[in-house]
From TrEMBL:
GO terms for molecular function: 4 iron, 4 sulfur cluster binding; deaminated base DNA N-glycosylase activity; metal ion binding. Keywords: 4Fe-4S, DNA damage, DNA repair, Hydrolase, Iron, Iron-sulfur, Metal-binding. It comes from the Bacteria. The keyword Manganese does not apply. Pfam families: UDG. This is Type-4 uracil-DNA glycosylase. The lineage of its organism: Bacteria, Pseudomonadati, Pseudomonadota, Gammaproteobacteria, Lysobacterales. It comes from Dyella marensis.
């Protein structure tokens, strides 16, 4: 019986601006199980469950959002709420299949503030984002995507650094570690929140345009 070689992460292959202090070991399935028990920041105390990434373990494209919403928290899967439905529409228009990409978030627990019976989304702070970066790092190292799409400023700054500005650098390819490439685009929830029909249509068109760039890169090999 062949000897099983343990996974040893190499931060040189990690397409993140600031690697975490530690990266969980084991297969992607093992890391998913470990993430369910994460207690490294307070977010787990009020969230329903950990929302880990989903998709092929050898996907060439990884889409990274910001953090789960209310529906994702309840269902335990990324991008299953209104933003997910908009993303599905945009992916279809761009010529990409949801089943062929790996979908995840920068933060794995839903952060919210109660407002009556509603749970209103609240942005994870820097410490919470840093505590969760180990799980994103583990996903990136195991899936090894060739193309990485950051949706929203939180994901973009995790990949490209704190100086990245979405309004100036959206839609521009950036070199990443391990010969990967990254691009940032609007998060679908940003499009949904955009006021004014013309402005919302423009933001959605830019999201589709950026995803079409990904489809073209993927097709070119």
């Amino acid at each position: 019986m062949p000897q099983r070689i343990p996974f040893r992460p190499d931060v040189a292959d990690l397409p993140l601006a600031k690697p975490p202090e530690r990266i969980p070991t084991g297969s992607l399935a093992t890391v998913r199980r470990k993430a369910k028990q994460c207690r490294d920041c307070p977010l787990w105390m009020h969230a329903t469950q950990t929302v880990f990434g989903e998709g092929p373990a050898d996907a060439q494209v990884m889409l990274i959002g910001e953090q789960p919403g209310a529906q994702e928290d309840l269902q335990g899967a990324p991008f299953v709420g209104p933003a997910g439905r908009m993303l599905d529409k945009a992916l279809t228009q761009a010529g990409l299949s949801r089943e062929a990409v790996y979908l995840t978030n920068t933060v794995k627990h839903f952060k919210f503030e109660p407002r009556g019976k509603a749970r209103l989304h609240k942005r994870a702070n820097a410490a919470e984002q840093a505590a969760c970066r180990q799980w994103l790092a583990a996903e990136l190292l195991r899936v090894k995507p060739r193309l990485v799409v950051a949706m929203g400023a939180m994901a973009a700054q995790a990949l490209f650094g704190a100086r990245f500005r979405m309004t100036q650098q959206r839609g521009q390819w950036q070199p990443l570690a391990a010969q990967a490439e990254g691009i940032a685009t609007w998060h679908p929830s940003y499009v949904l929140r955009t006021r004014g029909g013309d402005a919302r249509e423009r933001a959605y068109a830019e999201l589709v345009k950026d995803l079409r760039q990904v489809a073209a890169r993927l097709a070119a090999g």
